[in-house]
Structure formats: structure tokens, C-alpha cells
Amino acid sequence: MSEPEILLEVKNLKKHFPIYRGVFKRIVGYVKAVDGVSFTIRSGETVGLVGESGCGKTTVGRMVMGAYRPTSGEIWFKPPNGEPPVDLASVDSRRMKALRPHIQMVFQDPFASLNPRMTIREIIAEPLVVNKIARGKELERRVRESIEMVGLQTHHLSRYPHAFSGGQRQRISIARAMGLFPSLVVADEPTSALDVSVQAQIVNLALDIQSRFGLAYLFISHDLGLIRHFSSRVVVMYVGHVMEYAPAESLFKRPRHPYTEALLSNVPTTRPNLLGRKIILRGEPADPANPPPGCPFHTRCLYVQDICREVMPSLEEIEPEHKSACHFAGTLDLTGCDALGCVL
Amino acid sequence: MVPALVVEDLRVYFFLEQGVVRAVDGVTFSLAPGRTLGIVGESGSGKSVIGQSILRIVPPPGRIVGGKILLRVDDGDGSPQQIDVTKLHPNSRQARSIRGRQVAMIFQEPMNSFSPVHTVGSQIVEALMLHAQVRYDEARDRAVEMLRRVGIPQPEIRIDAYPHQLSGGMRQRAMIAMALVCNPKILIADEPTTALDVTIQAQILELLKSLQKEFGMAVLFISHNLGVIAEICHDVMVVYFGKVMETAPVETLFRNPIHPYTKALLKSVPGIDTPVRHHLATIEGTLPEPHANIAGCPFFGRCTVCTDGVVCSDEPYELAKVADDHFVACPQVCFIA
Questions:
Q1: Helices (H) and strands (E) in chain A, counts
Q2: What are phi and psi of B310, to 5 degrees?
Q3: A139-144 contacts: CB < 8 A, separation 24 or more?
Q4: Which of A258, B53, B81, B282 makes a 20 to 30 Å CA pair with A73?
Q5: What band does A344 get if pLDDT is binned at 50, 70 and 90?
């Protein structure tokens, strides 16, 4: 079976935010939010991006969306109409505007991402109008189609966002994103604000939409359980760097990076008999404005050696498709999900 | 063991213009020293209001309309006595002396519970001077010691930091220090790790466990996260729409849940045995309308077990014993058993 074509290829992506000080707004340093991230997304697959707060996962999502311009690096996106891939990092704004309908976003907070003064009809129609895709009767037809696709009814269209619960609002956000039939949806923590039973509904909806329209997701989350359920491949980030990049199954079965191992062991489990296998990390994530020399994780790593404090390891392939940025990835015997018993 | 806290048939109603919201509607439990009771439920289940009513800080228009909250108070002079907290005026001297000294609380977002214009240290010192009647110097020494115990590095320097100068994890540690500095008998933890990353969450849970061992306090742990509840609690109480659905020791509840709501809740979290990229089990429908007064099972209508369910909607709510320490409020289960 031939693999589906590459939809998005991110190469050595960096985003450094300047820190200004003083009256003249002198630049005194940079927050290296994203510092050399590479991964690919194939058509119709889900890539999970996982990490703690401040690791740069949202910044990566925003750069893919075109909301931030990268400091350096490339984002090659293949438009669906058979044109050659375009580098979103260097493309001019007119060309970008034409590409925007193909990449859509669903945000974390369904209370902040819908305009309270617009009806649901206006909210879902807006991207279609702005991108001059539909108008008049055709517009109404597309709006109705979108709202039904996410499991709401057409009589909801004339209401305002405040009349809906968190889960329903997230459905509306999905309807808005899906109206343009994008080939890639960046979903930034789409279920973090929801209760578990509602979260399950949204997850099911997202899976249904994917199998129906064959779109790809860049799924950003801190929840390893959801990432495992959703993704075919996973990128683990820490302080702006990719620590591990691997197919989901192999990553959860046998992580090749100490940080992934610690993350897995820290997921709360509902099996009380398997407690006590936790790896409690000391300290907190490094400051991206002032990262330590060498591997950014060395300050908390259990297996730290002298070389880790000096040399930043590169992302190497340990086994086919499984990459890890650790000097000892090949020799360490790390514990995976099965042994940890984490109910992910 | 004599329980530190006994709650009997607690009812807290919110009197709104649109009607009465029964946020807590007949909740009964007891809490022994050195034990942790978890209250788990979704948003709107009333789990936070239970914690607030023990401290008598239920925001208006909420009112305790019935039930008892019996707190065992040991003043050090003679035999301990039981105080019914619901009988106290929220602003009375006695109610204020209970807060902080007998019962302390930690919240989800520590930034909201610290004053942003006072240093962390001065807020801990204030609590100590108020409740333990010690002089400033001694209070400050004890505050530093407490900050050290909760794992804040360089406590003699950090004590003069403002809350915004600390990271989320450190703030939560500082808040735990403030809560425990007067050595309370009961700690109410309302979603204390929800705003934290998993690695920091693991640190805080570990800290709470070791502090409980050290101080022997009873902990009421409120959370929506089943995994966190499983890790830290001895007993678990599942609440839905202001009512207790099931209560059991932690292992029983997770291995052998009986109530359909508990089962549905456990299934909706993706687990190691859920096949990946398949549909998750959902709970269809939504919570009942908040002003509803439901005599029977509030889960009726969303429940998959009772489909014809005339029994469930009409049968009065009752928490029935199915085994030692295991109580379930499901008419179906009670009839089968």
C-alpha cells in the first residue's frame, strides 16, 4: 500500500519572540518559544503535538495557521488542487489569503472563540463570505449543511452563542471550520474546557468528520490519553524542542526519551493497584528565554550524564520512523505504557 | 475512629429569580482523620458547593436550607465537642475561628486566592498571628519552615515574593503552606491540580500525600478528574445534580462500579483497553434543567440501564447499601438486589 502524500512538512521551524526593555524598547533577549521543530503530516492522518504549558506547541499551531510568521524555517503545504507545495513561512500575504481556506483552526475556549454579538448563522457563514465561496441561497445551503454535520439543528442558527453549552459551542466552532472543507484542521486543546462525557462526544464527532472528509488534524493537547486515542503519530515537545517523534503505538509502547517516560508515568491512573510506579520529576520546565546549555531537559532528567549538560542532542532515528533527541536513546531501557499500567 | 466531620442530609439551595436551584440536595458523608474522601462529578454537580458550605462561604443567593455539618472541635481544654456549622452565622466569631484553624481550603487557581498586593509571606504570617496567637518573629520563622516543608527552594528569600513572581506550581505549594500552617484538622482541596501540568500535578499530589501522613489531617478532595481521584483518595463519592450517586472505597469504585452513571463516566475517558481511533462511550443528553426538582433519580433520561424507566423517575431517591462501605442510589440496582 502506498502511503498517502505529504500534506504539510515543517522543517527546522523557529519562533523567537523579542523581549523589550527600557524607554527605547531595546531588545534585551529572545524567548525561544519554538527552536527547531520538524515533522510531517500526511493527508488524512492525525499528528498529535503534546507537551507542558510553555513548550511552544500552541506557537507551532499558530505558525502553521499563518497567524505568526516564523523567525526561520519552512512550512511546506500542499494545496489540494494539485498545485506544487508552497512554503507558508515565506509566501506573500495575497497568496496566503488564497491558501487560508484549506487550513482551519478550532480553539480551546469555546466561550472566547465565538463572537457573542453574532448569530450562529453569521458565525458559520462568515468564512464562506470572506473567502467569497458562497452567497445567497448557496450560502444558506452550505450553512445548514455544516450545522447538521456537527449534530445541531437548523433552528439553532438564529440563536446567539450564549444560548449554548460548552460542548455545543465547540460543535459550532467545528462547523465554522468545516464549512470551507479544509484539508488540514489545527485543533488546539479542543476539549480541555469540557467535561469528560462531553469531551467524548466531541472526540467522536472529530473522528466521524475525519473519516467522512479525509482531512488531516494537527491535534495539540497536553492530555496524553486523548493524544493516544486520536493520533497516528506523536510529536513530544519540551521547551521549544522536539524530544521525540514517533508513531503513536511505538511511542506509548516503548518511549525512547526520558521525558516521554516521565510524562507517561505522571498521567493519573484509575487503577489504584498500579500506583507507586511514578517518576516524580524535580523542578519545573526550563525558561525558554534562558534555556540551559545542552539538552533542555537535563535539569530534570533521571539519567543525566555529563555530555547532556554540554551538547544538545539531535533528533535521531532510533528505529524506523521513531526519532528521539537523547544521547542515550539507543541504550536506555525506558518503561512504556503497558508496564506503567497507565490508563491513558 | 471518631470522624472529624459528619455531614448529614445537607441541602444548599440557590434562590434565583428564575427559580430555586438545588445545588446540593441531601448529601450525607463522614470524614475520618488521616483519610481522604474524593468528591467527583461534572461541572454543575454541586461538588464545590459542598466544600464551600463546610466553611460557610457559599456565595449568595445560595443558602444552607437543611441538614447538619458536625465538626469535631478540640480546643485543647477538656473533651472535644461537636459544633454544627450550619447553626453558626457566617460572620460570627466562632465561624471565623473555624476557618483556617480547624478547616482550611485550597483552590484551583492560587492566583485568585492570594492577595496580589501582599507578599506570600505576609499572608501566611497574618494567618498564623490571627489563629495561633504568636508574635511576628515566631510567625515568620514558622512560615519559612512551612514553605521549606512544601518544597519551595530558598524559602527565606521566597517568603518576600509576591504571588505573581512565583510559577503556577510554586504558587500552589505556597497556598498549601498557607492552608496547613495552622495545622487544621480538615483540608478541603477544590480542584487543586486542575490548572497544573502533569509533571507538576504529580509533584503536588505526592506532596499532599506526604503532608497528610505527617499532619494526619482529613482531606476532602474535590475534582472532576477520575485519575487524580484514584491516586489520592481512600474513599470516593460520585455526585450528580446535587445528589450522591455512589460512594465506595476507591478500589471498589474503580474495579466494581455499580451505578450506571459511574460506569458511563469511567468509560468516557480513553483508557488503555479502549481501542484507539474508535468511538468513545458518551453520556447522551445533557444535565437536567437546573431549576428542576427531581424526586427520583436525576440521571433518569440519560441512563442506558433504565430505558422504560417509570420506576426510576418516580421512585424516591435513596442511597442503598450494597456492601460494607458501598452505597448506591439506583432504583434498578436496589430492586434487582
A1: 11, 12
A2: -60, -40
A3: A142/A179, A143/A179
A4: A258
A5: very low
What fold is seen in the domain A6-237? Rossmann fold (3.40.50)
The pLDDT confidence band at residue B114, using thresholds 50, 70 and 90, is: confident
The mean pLDDT of B120-142, rounded to a whole number, is 90
- Give the pLDDT mean for A119-131: 93
Which residue(s) pair with B236 in the sheet? B38, B248
Bridge partners (DSSP) of residue B328 are B246, B320
What confidence score (pLDDT) does residue B32 get? 92
The answer to whether the CB of A122 falls within 8 A of the CB of A146 is no
ipTM at complex level: 0.83
> What is the reported pTM?
0.87
In angstroms, rounded to a whole number, what is the distance separating the alpha carbons of residues A319 and A305?
23
Contact B198, A266 (CB under 8 A): yes
C-alpha span between B315 and B122 (Å, rounded): 54
Which residues, including other chains, have CB under 8 Å from residue B253's CB and lie 6 or more apart?
A: B236, B238, B246, B247, B262
Helix runs in B55-134, H state only: 93-98, 110-113, 120-131
Q: Cis omega before residue B61 (within 30°)?
A: yes
Domain boundaries, chain A: 6-237, 239-340
First to last CA, chain A: 30
Pairwise CB contact (< 8 Å): A197 & B230? no
Strands A184-188 and A103-106: parallel
Contact call for B266 and A263, based on CB within 8 A: no
| Dihedral in degrees, nearest 10, Cα atoms A275, A279, A285, A290 | 180
Question: Which chain A positions have a beta carbon within 8 Å of B266's beta carbon?
Answer: 270
CA angle centred on A326, ends A320 and A330, rounded to 5° = 50
Q: Which residue of B has its CA nearest to A342?
A: B272
Distance CA A156, CA A144 (A): 10
Does residue A189 contact residue A222 with C-beta atoms inside 8 Å?
yes
Are residues A284 and B200, on separate chains, in Cβ contact within 8 Å? yes
In 3D space, the residue among A136, A133, A132, A157 whose CA is nearest the CA of residue A145 turns out to be A157
CB neighbour class for B329 (10 Å; exposed up to 12, middle 13-18, buried from 19): buried
* H runs (alpha helix) in chain A: 57-65, 93-99, 120-130, 136-149, 166-178, 196-213, 224-230, 248-253, 258-266, 306-310, 337-340
pLDDT in tens, A257-295: 999 988 888 887 776 555 556 788 888 888 888 888 999
Q: By the 8 A CB rule, do B162 and B120 touch? A: yes
Q: What are B224's three cell numbers?
A: 472532576
Which residues sit opposite B294 in a β-bridge? none
| Closest B-chain CA to A194 | B43
Q: Which of B197, B227, B276 sits opposite A229 (nearest CB)?
A: B276
* Sequence-ordered list of residues with C-beta below 8 angstroms from that of A232, at least 6 positions apart, any chain: A45, A46, A47, A247, A248, B277
